[in-house]
């Protein structure tokens, strides 16, 4: 501070403050305290909100998971009773199986399609803005509306899905009413609604690939598929991995689609972990069980999140 | 974004007659695919709301409504109390935006420029919340909002129940902090030497220089509240105070299909309009944000 001030024509007041004799120690400490008070004044609002709605709930989830808790009355310690009760719930294994299947299917369907689409879009030299806007449009439609829209499409009566199959002379499907097809139907909705963001991110990554790499590969006699395999995929590997982790984290927390479209049915075929947490808290009034489930989900997702953060860190360094 | 950049397929291949034929057939295919996959469902929704209740249930369906009814839209507007729910959503989104801009900006400024004691620890604590997926913590968050520690008041059925938790957005705060970190220190110091206080520096130097990042944060904040479902579902048990997303689901059970579809269209209009107006910024933001981490 002293150096910069000395180089500038400073107002008189500042020059006086920077007299060669250092201010007394008490003065300096008071100024430092004042600076700190001011800094914390700016921080206060944000800090309170983070404490109340991020840090405290995280601790509380762990505490309540070991308690018998009903809002309004004092909590009692329950040991691991919540965990054993939740583990013995037949819905528990169904919820985890559904969530993991959903995540896996979402990776298979919702991962390959955006990549191939981005690959094709990157080669097109016309109507670029049109494609980008159209593919992102479903992302801007509220998720609740997308879910209700697809619920209507899947309607066994006059739903668009079966009408399309009939029009193409294909056998119709039960969609969300069949235990075997319900989960896949929801994955289609989630993919349709969220694909836009993934496609745009891939497009950005593809555009950053230096063209010389393709030219060199072509001179070496690499055909189209070889160029994809040896240039495109290695060059976008970081983005692919990052999006994969992000998608796993997001799809493991799926709630809106099963809640709105199927209500967890048929026969628990679409109950997800987050849906089960919601049911424990708001249908069974069992907050201890809900928190025990939350802690389990948290630990699993924490592993993926840590992987994501490490990946983005290393990406920044490189 | 120059069209001259070399991509997977070389310009020479594309210039050949065969290459050109393949290019245009792929192009047409993608246009048809995108129209069917993304635009047609939206068309189906907008026109479905204009069909008569009989026509919308007919098989095979009609591609274009026989008669264009606007009554679906007017009924939705009146029967489902859409003005009220839309207003609730606007209030919740606008408040969350304002709270986030004020508190996140101030906190990011303090962490970036004011060197608070334990600043590193605080930043670490904020970034750690990025590792904790928000949805997994909704139940303890709900219990906190239902009975705030020390104050023992409830934020349920109160827009504050949306506004305050929205401030705890580590992603937006970090975005702001990283932007502030890049602002040249000597500009801020020059303002201070001219006698400006910290608040004055923030208001008249830092914020005007931060317009791009403030725009991005604003859009993220608005969209997040408008699209959210689980949290407002928990916070607002009171039907009169519910935002449009929660109200739509609650009312969808016992309402005529055409009216529900009309309400869905109306609920989508604000965000789609926001997107169409700011599409350049939004698309550029997504593309840039991702590659830079």
TrEMBL record, chain B:
Keywords: Cell membrane, Membrane, Transmembrane, Transmembrane helix, Transport
Intracellular or extracellular location(s): Cell membrane
The UniProt record lists the keyword Nucleotide-binding: no
GO cellular component terms given for this protein: plasma membrane
Keyword Membrane: yes
Domain ABC transmembrane type-1: 86-278
InterPro entries assigned to the protein according to its UniProt record, in alphabetical order: MetI-like (IPR000515), MetI-like_sf (IPR035906)
Bilayer topology term: Multi-pass membrane protein
Main location: membrane
Gene Ontology biological-process entries: transmembrane transport
Transmembrane segments: 21-44, 86-109, 121-140, 160-180, 201-226, 255-278
Family: Belongs to the binding-protein-dependent transport system permease family.
UniProt protein name: Sugar ABC transporter permease
Organism whose genome encodes this protein: Streptomyces fuscichromogenes
Lineage: Bacteria, Bacillati, Actinomycetota, Actinomycetes, Kitasatosporales
């Amino acid at each position: 501070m002293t150096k910069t001030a000395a180089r500038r024509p400073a107002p008189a007041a500042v020059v006086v403050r920077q007299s060669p004799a250092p201010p007394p120690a008490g003065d300096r400490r008071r100024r430092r305290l004042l600076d700190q008070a001011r800094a914390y004044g700016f921080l206060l609002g944000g800090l309170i909100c983070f404490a109340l709605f991020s840090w405290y709930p995280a601790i509380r989830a762990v505490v309540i998971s070991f308690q018998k808790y009903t809002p309004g009355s004092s909590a009692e310690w329950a040991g691991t009773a919540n965990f054993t009760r939740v583990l013995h719930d037949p819905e528990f294994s169904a919820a985890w199986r559904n969530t993991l299947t959903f995540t896996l299917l979402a990776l298979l369907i919702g991962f390959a399609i955006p990549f191939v689409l981005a690959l094709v879009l990157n080669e097109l030299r016309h109507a670029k803005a049109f494609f980008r806007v159209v593919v992102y449009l479903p992302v801007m439609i509220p998720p609740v509306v997308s879910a209700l829209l697809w619920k209507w499409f899947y309607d066994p009566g006059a739903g668009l899905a079966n009408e399309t199959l009939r029009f193409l002379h294909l056998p119709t499907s039960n969609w969300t009413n069949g235990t075997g097809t319900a989960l896949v139907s929801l994955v289609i909705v989630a993919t349709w609604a969220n694909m836009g963001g993934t496609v745009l991110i891939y497009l950005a990554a593809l555009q950053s690939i230096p063209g010389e790499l393709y030219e060199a590969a072509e001179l070496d006699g690499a055909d189209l598929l070889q160029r994809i395999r040896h240039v495109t995929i290695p060059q976008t590997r970081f983005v692919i991995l990052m999006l994969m982790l992000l998608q796993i984290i997001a799809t493991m927390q799926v709630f809106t689609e099963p809640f709105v479209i199927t209500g967890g049915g048929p026969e628990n075929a679409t109950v997800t972990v987050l849906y089960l947490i919601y049911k424990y808290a708001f249908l069974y009034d069992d907050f201890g069980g809900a928190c025990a489930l939350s802690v389990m989900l948290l630990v699993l997702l924490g592993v993926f999140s840590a992987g994501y953060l490490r990946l983005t860190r290393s990406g920044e360094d490189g | 974004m120059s069209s001259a950049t070399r991509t997977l397929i070389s310009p020479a291949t594309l210039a050949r007659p065969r290459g050109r034929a393949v290019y245009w057939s792929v192009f047409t295919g993608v246009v048809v695919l995108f129209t069917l996959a993304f635009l047609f469902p939206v068309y189906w929704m907008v026109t479905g709301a204009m069909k008569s209740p009989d026509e919308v249930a007919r098989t095979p369906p009609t591609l274009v409504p026989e008669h264009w009814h606007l009554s679906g839209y007017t009924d939705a507007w009146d029967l489902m109390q859409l003005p009220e729910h839309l207003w609730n959503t606007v209030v919740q989104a606008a408040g969350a935006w304002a709270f986030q801009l004020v508190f996140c900006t101030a906190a990011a400024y303090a962490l970036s420029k004011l060197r608070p004691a334990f600043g590193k620890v605080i930043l670490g604590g904020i970034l750690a919340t990025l590792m904790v997926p928000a949805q997994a913590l909704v139940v303890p968050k709900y219990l906190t909002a239902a009975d705030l520690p020390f104050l023992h008041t409830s934020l349920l059925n109160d827009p504050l129940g949306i506004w305050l938790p929205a401030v705890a957005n580590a992603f937006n705060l970090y975005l702001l902090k990283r932007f502030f970190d890049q602002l040249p220190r000597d500009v801020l110091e020059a303002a201070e030497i001219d006698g400006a206080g910290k608040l004055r520096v923030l208001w008249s130097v830092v914020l005007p220089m931060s317009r791009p990042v403030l725009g991005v944060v604003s859009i993220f904040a608005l969209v997040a509240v408008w699209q959210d479902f689980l949290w407002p579902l928990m916070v607002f048990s009171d039907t009169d105070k519910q935002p449009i997303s929660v109200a739509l689901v609650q009312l969808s059970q016992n309402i005529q299909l055409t009216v529900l579809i009309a309400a869905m269209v109306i609920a989508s209009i604000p965000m789609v309009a926001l997107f169409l107006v700011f599409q350049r910024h939004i698309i550029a933001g997504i593309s840039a944000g991702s590659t830079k981490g």
